[in-house]
Design brief:
It is a single chain. By secondary structure, the protein is of the alpha/beta class. It folds into two domains: about 120 residues; about 140 residues, 3-Layer(aba) Sandwich (Rossmann fold). The protein has nine helices and eleven strands. The strands form two sheets. The chain has a six-stranded parallel β-sheet with strand order 8-7-6-9-10-11, with helices on both faces. A five-stranded parallel β-sheet has the order 3-2-1-5-4. Helix 5 runs parallel beside helix 8. About 35% of the residues are buried.
């Protein structure tokens, strides 16, 4: 059996699941999700059951005081062969070594090499379990049919790419996709305006001006766009992974670990190294 810890925000949970699913699928093992971190968090919820993900079991244990944490850790270490991710920027081959105990994956696993062979299957599962609202479904169809490019500007806890990155990425996109329409996704509209500097641009619209959508709905709408200018974000990285356009053009900023997330053909824009 393969057990994978699910935690942090939705993008990270998608990476957690993808690694665990691919390993279980490759080796013909059952898959269990440990969602304790989500259930005990006051900031993050368990998000994966919004999608049609497949697994054999889930487990969750209270983890709010010393004795609960001690019990959970002792139980985990006795039952499972725990693999704590050592290096975030390379493939940890220890996950492929079978032992007499079930393997427990504890980490981020943000490397496309872990699951690229099963990305087609993941695309089929990372779709909503329930029907979308009519407003969302209609806009999703419109974005997927048009000459569109999602632009993700993240605000909040982590500094995103510089305005220079967005200017260069959007310039390259306009050159490569004549007549492209940019759809901006952001949780910080003021920061996005600074980054994009396109107050009068006729080819730029904010998703927030097109309706009122939940984070998950915006994620689906982002993935429906035919091209992507993403941030240093697992959220927008997965939106680009899930895009169905075979001729998709993706711009990604330079940050530690970016190269290991790129699929073939993605453009890593390093303004210093001019990639």
């Amino acid at each position: 059996m393969i057990v994978v810890k699910i935690g942090d925000g939705m993008g990270n949970q998608l990476f957690n699941y993808a690694c665990g699913y691919a390993l279980a699928r490759r080796e013909g093992e059952t898959l269990k999700l440990d969602i304790s971190e989500c259930d005990n968090s006051t900031l993050r919820d368990y998000e994966l059951d919004f999608f049609r993900v497949r697994y054999d079991a889930k487990e969750s244990f209270p983890n709010r005081n010393f004795w609960q944490k001690l019990y959970k850790r002792l139980r985990r270490n006795l039952l499972y062969h725990v693999i704590m991710e050592k290096d975030l920027f390379s493939v940890d081959t220890r996950i492929y070594k079978k032992t007499w105990r079930s393997r427990y994956l504890h980490g981020y696993w943000q490397n496309v090499a872990y699951f690229q062979d099963y990305l087609k299957e993941l695309r089929e599962m990372y779709v909503p379990r329930e029907p979308l609202r009519q407003e969302t479904a209609e806009l999703l169809e419109e974005l997927s049919a048009g000459n569109t490019c999602a632009v993700h500007v993240r605000g909040g806890d982590i500094n995103g790419p510089s305005p220079a990155y967005f200017r260069e990425a959007m310039h390259r996109m306009r050159e490569a996709r004549r007549g492209v329409r940019f759809i901006v996704f952001t949780n910080d509209k003021e920061k996005a305006a600074e980054c994009i500097q396109a107050e009068n641009a006729q080819d730029v619209r904010y998703i927030s001006d097109m309706g009122s959508f939940s984070d998950k709905e915006e994620f689906l709408l982002m993935s429906a766009c035919k091209n992507h200018v993403i941030s240093n974000s697992s959220y927008s990285t997965w939106a680009a992974y899930l895009c169905r356009n075979k001729e998709q053009l993706v711009m990604i900023p330079p940050y530690q670990g970016a190269a290991q997330m790129c699929l073939e053909g993605w453009q890593l824009i390093d303004l210093e190294g001019e990639t």
